[in-house]
Write a structure and sequence with these properties.
The protein is of the alpha+beta class. It is built from five helices and two strands. The chain has a two-stranded antiparallel ribbon. Strand 1 and strand 2 form a beta hairpin. The chain is globular. The two termini are 18 Å apart.
């Protein structure tokens, strides 16, 4: 049963993050975006009602650490992450697993995405 839940959480994360990862083929960039999406996913479970503020805090820290991120890029990513959070709550309210790890491995022309999750406490 546990592995079934992991599969469902993995598929759900990829679905709600679709706009964020659309057209991204670089495995490292894809992993970075999926990690951000997993944070938004987790915030929607652990800090319901405060997701937007927590996402804004995270992106401010990211922007300080990466001078290449423009304010426009930060706003676009913020909108996508808030959408991830909202979609998780709307489409998958009963899936309460937090994402604990995201791995991306390039296999030929395709990227294999593996997501690990665990029940929220």
């Amino acid at each position: 049963m546990e592995s079934n839940t992991k599969l469902i959480a993995s598929d759900c994360l990829k679905e709600v993050a679709a706009d964020l990862i659309k057209g991204v083929n670089d495995p490292l960039q894809l992993k970075e975006l999926l990690v951000l999406a997993s944070i938004a996913w987790n915030e929607s479970i652990l800090n319901e009602g405060k997701e937007r503020e927590r996402i804004q805090e995270l992106l401010k820290i990211s922007q300080k650490n990466d001078a290449q991120l423009s304010s426009l890029e930060v706003l676009e990513v913020e909108d996508c992450l808030v959408k991830v959070s909202e979609l998780r709550k709307k489409q998958y309210p009963d899936i309460r697993n937090i994402i604990t790890n995201v791995e991306v491995e390039q296999k030929g022309k395709f990227n294999h995405i593996e997501v690990t999750s665990a029940p929220a406490k």
